[in-house]
């Protein structure tokens, strides 16, 4: 029992490790399980225009913060003739362009390519309690209006979140009463409204700050940032849309700046303005994930096939398919009971088929093996030693393949040309084995085993060329462990093979009739 | 219906290929003992040491350049058999029944020349028939003379008796009869008839050709009902003794009856096939279970043969089959 138990423990361990790694790569590193998984990549261009006055110029521009579920692929800064540096401060990153003297219209560009990941992010750790907000000073009338409004809202709300939402809704209502009109004071610019909400919340003792962000819509030009209010509630900062009162981050929304630092400071210039244009492109999630993981130096990826040169990666693409072929052979032999010549010949034939494509491959296979066997039967009459005979067959076979290539080239069929080095070796080897089989067991066995090998090879080929399987084996080499575990389990199978149900079927009939 | 139900087969105790490989061969046959039976010369020496009759060795050829000496070896003998030492499944065996100057005659009457025999021998030497294609040796044996008991049941060849021996106990037996279709070879795949033999009496039970039941020999038209194997006790004891000889727990002993010398072991097999179940129309599993249930293996081959004879007689009925089936499916370490 212990050997069996040990095997099962081993199987569970290998299987668990394999599946665990796959899940880790899928959920933590964002590798998709399907090759067709696509993601929108947003390219955002911020264009800063100003008129320089001929003095030293310093342009300071707030950059969006890196958050866990947004991946910045590329950031470009461009402005001819300007010195550039990126500054990091506790309040966020800033880009700084500077020049000794400049005059006339100036432009600076900032370009960002980013995508949102749907990978699992731990819920934000509780934010530090911010300092008690300073009570803002309101002028006499305004103060009364503010207090009345707050009382009114407070009476309708049960907690801070509802309070904030109600407050924003009331300020935005279509039929404002006198207090609201007084507070909004005709200057209904977005920035004024944001300030007002924050001040009103501060009056109530609630910490809040401004958040500027960008709605990501395809093909938009001349966009500007939208103002949001972020409110400290229950140990966390919660985002509110200042025009609707909705909470939470909207979809396709990039938070650009938090807090009331300026978005853009231009020293030595005037009429500065900033506009954003947005472009959307679709890219394969897998490429994005590989890129991101390499740049993050995730250990699993850093020491993986991706770190190899592309050429070797392609070789591995093929090699990693071999275990799938092995699994098919195990199933065909142990469960179905198909006889193949050799354990791995079907896998190798399948590999050759991958290079030649299925139909051409089978035709070439049958032609070449058939001719090879004919020649073998002639050679066997010449009274040669066995090794010499087999070698002669191989030489003749290579000649046949060369002529197939040349003739098909002359006929303009370039498909048969794909009989390259690798399939050639496999075919020669097949013929050798088949010849031996023919001499040992006769033609019947050649048909059984040759047919079995070819059938297994075709099934293995169909699996190995399946796009999803190809994708999964290459991007999740851990699947090999799962495959290994499956083969170990299959090695335990002691039941009947499908072919044995046929082999013994007469027995069943006799036993039944004998007993009754 | 072309497929049997797995459940029914299991209830008959039929052992499948996978179960044979893991439950019998790898459990009872240590790998290092294989050469004893894969090398027929070694088997022959072992058998002779154990006092078991084997066909007489006329000569061996080990090297390619010794092929020239073949004529010298063969000349004194009118009849002989050429075998690859490491061949399996009867491959590469050449039987010559008549020798006339330069012509050698096969049982079918086809004449071949010495050059053909030399080519055959050099093919064997280069490993054509050996397991894994390794270089091989050739042995030349005296021809076995057909026992008159079988003269009505065989066509151009010598029938052989396959007895499966588990831990020294013969558990199932089958007579393989050559036919026209099998080209004088006792190989079931090639069309030989397999006749299940009652371990208790040596009587024929069922016969199959190509997996289908037959009632009489396809060439001689003789019905199998009257077929009884002579020297049955001796045959069982011979088979049982192979256990001590080789140490293999699960083996197939191939025994022939020689007209003049009686039972002889011609070959032992560490991986005997499963067709014997079809020929006997019975599964191996219940019989394996009886042997596995034994507390100790009797050291005396004769008493083991007697035990088998009594246990596995077709109408023994000592153990209700149901009980046996359940035992056979017990998982064992």
Question: What does this protein structure show overall?
Answer:
By secondary structure, chain A is α+β, with helices and mostly antiparallel strands. Among the domains of chain A are: 140-258, Beta Polymerase, domain 2 (2-Layer Sandwich), CATH 3.30.460; 313-476, no CATH class. Chain A is 50% helix and 21% strand. Chain A has 18 helices and 12 strands. In chain A, strands 3-6-1-12 form a 4-stranded antiparallel β-sheet. In chain A, helix 2 (140-155) packs across helix 3, helix 9 runs parallel beside helix 16 (479-490) and helix 11 crosses helix 12 (386-410). The model of chain A has no long low-confidence stretch (mean pLDDT 80). With 333 residues, chain B is an alpha+beta fold. Chain B is 30% helix and 22% strand. Chain B has 11 helices and 14 strands. In chain B, the strands form 3 sheets. Chain B has a 7-stranded antiparallel β-sheet with strand order 12-11-10-9-8-13-14. In chain B, helix 7 (232-246) packs across helix 10. Chain B starts with 5 loop residues before the first helix and ends in a 5-residue tail after the last helix. The chains are: A alpha+beta (516), B alpha+beta (333). The A-B interface holds A 1-4, 334, 337, 383, 385-387, 436, 439-442, 492-498, 500-508, 510-512, 514 and B 1-6, 8-10, 12, 14, 16-19, 22-23, 64, 91-92, 115, 119, 122-123, 126-129, 133, 190, 206, 208, 211-213, 274, 277-278, 281, 331, 333.
């Amino acid at each position: 029992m212990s050997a069996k138990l040990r095997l099962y423990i081993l199987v569970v361990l290998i299987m668990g490790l394999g599946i665990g790694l796959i899940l880790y790569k899928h959920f933590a590193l964002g590798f998709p399980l399907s090759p067709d998984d696509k993601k929108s990549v947003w390219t955002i261009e911020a264009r800063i225009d100003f008129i320089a006055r001929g003095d030293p110029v310093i342009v300071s521009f707030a950059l969006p913060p890196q958050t866990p579920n947004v991946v910045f692929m590329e950031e470009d800064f461009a402005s001819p003739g300007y010195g550039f540096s990126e500054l990091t401060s506790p309040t966020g990153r800033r880009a700084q362009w500077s020049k000794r003297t400049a005059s006339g219209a100036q432009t600076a560009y900032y370009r960002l390519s980013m995508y949102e990941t749907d990978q699992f992010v731990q819920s934000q750790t509780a934010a530090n309690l911010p300092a008690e907000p300073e009570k803002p000073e309101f002028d006499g009338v305004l103060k009364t209006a503010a207090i009345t409004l707050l009382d009114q809202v407070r009476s309708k709300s049960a907690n801070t979140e509802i309070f904030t939402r109600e407050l924003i809704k009331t300020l935005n209502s279509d039929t404002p009463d006198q207090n609201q009109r007084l507070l909004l004071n005709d200057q209904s610019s977005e920035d004024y409204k944001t300030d007002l909400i924050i001040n009103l919340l501060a009056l109530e003792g609630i910490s809040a700050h401004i958040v500027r962000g960008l709605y990501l819509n395809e093909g938009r030009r001349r966009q500007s940032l939208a103002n949001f209010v972020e409110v400290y509630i229950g140990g966390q900062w919660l985002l509110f849309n200042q025009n609707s009162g909705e909470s939470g981050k909207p979809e396709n929304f990039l938070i650009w700046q938090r807090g009331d630092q300026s978005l853009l400071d231009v020293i030595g210039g005037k009429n500065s303005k900033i506009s954003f244009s947005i472009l959307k492109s679709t890219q394969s999630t897998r490429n994005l994930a590989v890129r991101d993981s390499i740049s993050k130096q995730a250990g699993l990826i850093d020491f993986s096939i991706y770190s190899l040169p592309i050429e070797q990666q392609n070789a591995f693409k093929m090699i990693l398919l071999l275990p799938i072929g092995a699994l098919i052979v195990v199933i065909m032999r142990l469960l179905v009971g198909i006889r193949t010549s050799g354990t791995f010949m079907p896998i190798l034939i399948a590999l050759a088929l991958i290079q030649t494509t299925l139909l051409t491959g089978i035709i070439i296979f049958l032609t070449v093996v058939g001719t090879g066997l004919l020649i073998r039967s002639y050679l066997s009459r010449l009274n040669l030693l066995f090794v010499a005979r087999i070698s002669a067959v191989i030489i003749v076979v290579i000649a046949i393949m060369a002529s197939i290539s040349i003739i098909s080239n002359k006929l303009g069929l370039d498909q048969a040309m794909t009989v390259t080095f690798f399939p050639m070796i496999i075919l020669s080897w097949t013929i050798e084995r088949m010849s031996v089989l023919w001499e040992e067991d006769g033609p019947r066995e050649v048909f059984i085993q040759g047919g079995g090998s070819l059938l297994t090879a075709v099934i293995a080929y169909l699996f190995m060329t399946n796009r999803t399987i190809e994708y999964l084996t290459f991007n999740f080499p851990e699947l090999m462990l799962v495959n290994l575990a499956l083969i170990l389990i299959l090695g335990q199978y002691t039941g009947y093979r499908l072919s044995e149900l046929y082999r013994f079927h007469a027995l069943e009939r006799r036993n039944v009739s004998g007993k009754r | 219906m072309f497929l049997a139900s797995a459940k029914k087969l299991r209830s008959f105790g039929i052992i499948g290929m996978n179960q044979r490989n893991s439950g019998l061969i790898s459990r009872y046959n240590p790998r290092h003992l294989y050469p004893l039976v894969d090398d027929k010369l070694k088997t022959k020496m072992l058998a002779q040491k154990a006092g078991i009759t084997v066909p007489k060795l006329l000569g061996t050829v080990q090297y390619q350049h010794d092929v020239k000496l073949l004529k010298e070896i063969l000349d004194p003998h009118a009849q002989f058999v050429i075998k690859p030492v490491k061949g399996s499944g009867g491959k590469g065996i050449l039987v010559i029944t008549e020798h006339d100057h330069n012509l050698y005659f096969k049982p079918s009457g086809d004449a071949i020349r010495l050059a053909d025999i030399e080519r055959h021998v050099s093919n064997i030497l280069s490993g054509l028939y050996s397991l894994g294609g390794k270089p091989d040796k050739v042995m030349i044996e005296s021809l076995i003379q057909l026992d008159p008991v079988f003269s009505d049941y065989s066509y151009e060849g010598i029938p052989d008796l396959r007895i499966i021996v588990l831990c020294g106990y013969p558990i199932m037996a089958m007579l393989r009869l050559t036919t026209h279709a099998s080209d004088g070879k006792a190989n079931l795949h090639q069309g030989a008839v397999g006749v299940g033999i009652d371990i208790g009496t040596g009587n024929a039970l069922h016969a199959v050709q190509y997996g289908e039941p037959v009632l009489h020999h396809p060439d001689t038209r003789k019905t199998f009902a009257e077929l009884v194997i002579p020297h049955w006790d001796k045959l069982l004891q011979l088979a049982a003794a192979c256990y001590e000889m080789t140490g293999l727990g699960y083996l197939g002993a191939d025994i022939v009856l020689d007209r003049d010398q009686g039972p002889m072991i011609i070959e032992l097999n560490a991986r005997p096939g499963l067709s014997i179940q079809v020929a006997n129309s019975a599964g191996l599993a219940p019989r394996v279970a009886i042997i596995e249930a034994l507390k100790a293996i009797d050291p005396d081959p004769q008493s083991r043969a007697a035990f088998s004879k009594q246990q596995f007689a077709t109408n023994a009925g000592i153990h209700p089959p149901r009980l046996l089936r359940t035992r056979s499916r017990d998982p064992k370490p």
